[in-house]
Specification:
246 residues, mainly alpha, microtubule binding, calcium-dependent protein binding
Length: 246
Amino acid sequence: MNEVKECLRNIEQTYKIFQQQQFTFIAALDRTREDAHDKIRPIASIGQVQAYMDHHCNNTTDRRILLMFLSICSELNKLCQKLEALHPGTSVTNNILEKCKLLVSPSNDLSTIRAKYPHDVVNHLSCDEAKNHYGGVVSLIPIVLDCMKAWVAHSEKLPRNFLHNVSDGSADSQKRTQQDVSAKASAPLGPRPAILTTATQTLVSYKDYSGEQNRKHGKKEHLNGTGRNTWKYLNGPWKPPGKPSF
């Protein structure tokens, strides 16, 4: 939400500079319309302003002010996308957002919209200009900015955890994925397949059995050795048979 507010403030600052040059903007539109031989139709869409700048703009000043208008409209369109991604919204915020998206659409008809008090952009036009030519195009940006401020005001009334959970959803999801990968990498290996476990048990059993047999065999040899030594002690050294003892 803080990022949205910051973007909105930046657009408002740019618009204040643009608003101070409204007469330059109207003069640029008037010249490009004349070059296009299109003096009858009102300025009815953002796309129409874009076409005038691309094909009928013959001086740097006119191009600069028309480009400034189009740039603000583009930033408003991007901000609409950010608002849409911030949270699912309620019926109120969704209606406001849909209105914003419609207004900044390049093909939307702007000829009938008018910015009302406290905005005075229409008041700086002549009656003919306001009614038949430029009333809609000069009203577009202030109306959209008001709608976005209303969206922010309604969104801030939503529960904090609702806004936080959805706005950080993608970051949390990415963080959980990284944690899962780290956990799997550090976790001990699971049980071996049954065939390996059985073979391992058999090998261990065989080793135990062999060790036990070796221990028994060693004990028997030890006892046999003891018996032979005892026999030698009792009967004396070995002598060939048939010879008398001395």
